[in-house]
Every structure is written in structure tokens, then in C-alpha cells.
From TrEMBL:
It comes from Microdochium trichocladiopsis. This is Fungal-type protein kinase domain-containing protein. InterPro entries: Kinase-like_dom_sf, Pkinase_fungal. SUPFAM superfamilies: Protein kinase-like (PK-like). Residues 4-63 form the Fungal-type protein kinase domain.
């Protein structure tokens, strides 16, 4: 974790009450495609699991695109996600999370130096959100708690403040 940095992540205008039985009624898919869960891209009925997976994709995107506070970059390999159809994007995302070695290689190559210290934490989140390297097939009620615990543990790690080399 980067000490002393604060952030605010919100997209509550699209939030869904967990007890709701049906979709919101919004026409088509809504949300930022790069952050959408694989199942949502494939047209599945919305689940709280999609929201948790979306959190993973937001964090992944931040670690790839942000080089420091208020500094970012464009990464052509991931920029394509804005232009392919939803099924192709779902496949691209599965390719990223399908295997520990592939995921490790991608994070080492594309996470900015500013966020490289988060690679182990994002890897643990990946294993929680994508059990066995695939997309989830049934809801896991304890996933939110598991993700919280992974993030709590990361905060305990003694990671020094970022110092450029």
C-alpha cells in the first residue's frame, strides 16, 4: 500500500440492492466496459459478484495506467478494450486472469513502478475473484469479506513510501 495516499472510489448511481430480484431496467449494458465483470459483458443477470469483480478491474486498470499522483499513461495493449465487442473483451479479460504465470508476467510488465509493490495483493485478489483462474460460476457469499481481509493484510505489510530510483 502507498502510505499517505488517499482515494475515493464511487459509482453508486449504478449500485444494486443485494435483495433485488431483477435487473434495474436500464436498456443494454451500462457502465465502463474496461471495468465490467466478464459475466456482465456476456449478458448475465447482475449479481453482487459482478460488482466485486469490477472492483478488481478498476484496481488493475489503476495499477497499469497511473504512474503517480495525478500522472497517467496510455497503454496501447489495454486501450483496445475500449473498441472491441463485449464478447471479445470478455475473452481478453479471461486471458489476463486465467493463469498465475500469465498474470504475473502481465503485472510485472505493465504495472507502473508506482504500483509494483501491489502486485502480490492484486494477485491474491485475482485468486479470490477468479477461483481456479476462471470466472465464477456461482455466487460466493464470503467473497466480499475475503477481499476485505486481503486488503487489510496488505495495509499491514511494511511497504515503504514510494521513492523513485
Amino acid at each position: 500500500m502507498i502510505r499517505g495516499e488517499k482515494g475515493f472510489l464511487i459509482d453508486l448511481d449504478l449500485a444494486v440492492a443485494e435483495q433485488r430480484e431483477e435487473a434495474s431496467g436500464a436498456y443494454g449494458k451500462t457502465g465502463t466496459r474496461a471495468f465490467m465483470a466478464i459475466g456482465a459483458l456476456l449478458g448475465e443477470q447482475h449479481s453482487f459478484m459482478h460488482d466485486l469483480e469490477s472492483f478488481f478491474w478498476v484496481l488493475f486498470w489503476i495499477c497499469i495506467h497511473h504512474t503517480g499522483p495525478e500522472e497517467s499513461r496510455v497503454v496501447p495493449r489495454f486501450e483496445k478494450r475500449n473498441y472491441v465487442d463485449t464478447e471479445e473483451l470478455a475473452g481478453m479479460k479471461l486471458g489476463v486472469v486465467s493463469d498465475d504465470d500469465i498474470f504475473g508476467k502481465i503485472t510485472m510488465e505493465f504495472f507502473t513502478d508506482y504500483f509494483k509493490a501491489l502486485i502480490p495483493t492484486v494477485g491474491r485478489l485475482r485468486r479470490a475473484v477468479f477461483p481456479g483462474g476462471g470466472r465464477w460460476k456461482k455466487e460466493v457469499r464470503g467473497l466480499y469479506s475475503s477481499m476485505q481481509e486481503i486488503l487489510r493484510e496488505a495495509r499491514k505489510d511494511e511497504i515503504p513510501p514510494f521513492a523513485p530510483s
